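pinging the channel bc i need a second pair of eyes. not urgent but kinda urgent?? the chain im working w is below, pasted from the shared doc
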Amino acid sequence: MDELRAWEWNPASYNVADAFALLLNTEYAPLDQRLRTVLKRLQKVPAYYAAAAAERAQSTREHTRLAIEQNHGALDVFGSDLEKQIAGSGLSAQERKLFAQAQRRSTRGIKNTSMLEALTNSCAKRAGALVPIGAQLYDEKFAFANPRRARGSALRQRAG
């Protein structure tokens, strides 16, 4: 983590959809309890994306496109399926009202986040580095991930 610092160059790592889908779709607790947990976290989504935008420095075009697609896909997690779960729950009228507000803010936060806007703009303006971590760190990462094939990475072989 200290060397790769993926949070700076891989915007695809900033996505709330999986965590929320896991809470909503895993029956680890009664639905009402799970929804209350989701509500607490949902209220923090706009701040999460604001922090993510501040952390991201530069990314590859491929990582940028992936992040854009994933974050637009995250909107589905907060859509009709969640609304059906809320409708079928025992949440109070006040909790439902808070949920609706949090859903709107989170959806707006995902759509209008400065990170997503910056990603879209940077993707259109530049190609980005093929390997943003550099050849030496790439070789180390490749060797760690593929110990049997690490006799010389494809990047080193291309560089000649």
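so The first helix runs from residue 6 to 9. and The chain has a mean pLDDT of 78. — does that match what u expected or am i reading it wrong
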